[in-house]
Amino acid sequence: MNRAWVREAVRLIEADANRSADTHLHVFPLPLEWGIDLYLKDESVHPTGSLKHRLARSLLLYALVNGQIGPGTTLIEASSGSTAVSEAYFARMLGLEFVAVMPRKTSREKVQLIEFYGGRCHFVDIPAEMYTEAERLGAAPDAYYLDQFTYAERATDWRGNNNIAESVFAQMKLERHPVPSWIVVGAGTGGTSATFGRYVRYRRHTTKICVVDPENSSFFGAWETGAMDYSTGMPSRIEGIGRPRVEPSFVPQVIDEMIQVPDAGSMAAIRLLRERTGHWAGGSTGTNLYGAFQLISRMLAAGQHGSVVTLLCDGGERYAHTYYDDEWLAGHELAIEPELATMREFLATGRWVS
Question: CB of 51 within 8 A of CB of 192?
């Protein structure tokens, strides 16, 4: 392995991180008298526009320091979109070829972004086949399969090093409830929930971790039953989260609760977010927000005060022709009005009546 090239590659990636400011922590407006504050960590402001920018950086650094990537390596990933966008960005930075293996149904906005950063999209008709296809391509000489679903939980230093958990707690220091009662995240690989779950235990915080899971995903069933081979065999409609099988990076032991979220609820929540804050976010943010509202309603019913933190995972412009398109929603039989009514009632009264 060319050590001089690896040193320069690590420098380039670290320099990129050093140029980037931390992501914002927005306050979602709730009645002051509730005594509960809701925050959204805005990961859409990363250079590649999503939470997956952190993951891609960690995955490439992990592979570099493990001697897996050299100056002529072709990088391969199985991804439904955002991870591949970010990996293509870093691959171009290092002068490497990048191939994303993805379902053919992936939004055209994400495909265009991958290609904008110099990546190539390799489509499969059956989503579950992208794993084996990525493995096949990664087995070629001078190729490397980044494999986000296996390495996400170990590539990030959960003890600190400016990971997302450390960043959130630093930004919360001057808030009226600086240690969150709950942190709410979705699971695509499981890497983010593993990072938060390990960090709060390492720092001895009382914060609980809630993972929200969309329809068709296997994570909730695995957590509820303890069967890590649990499988639905069905793709998620919420890009970036939910998997037809339980991924190796999913660590249920560091999760305190899981909530299943209907896809119509996720779609409704991003409309509500834009209505109340002006922020335009993707579907996984809606899943997060829907779960956070339910937890806050429980806190209110129990007379508890505190704070809840969740993530704004990516921007809504990537989903202009899907999640924000009424015809697309109708074609997928997603009726969002009843869910919108539930959330508006919650914000007016504090009660969650579904």
Answer: yes
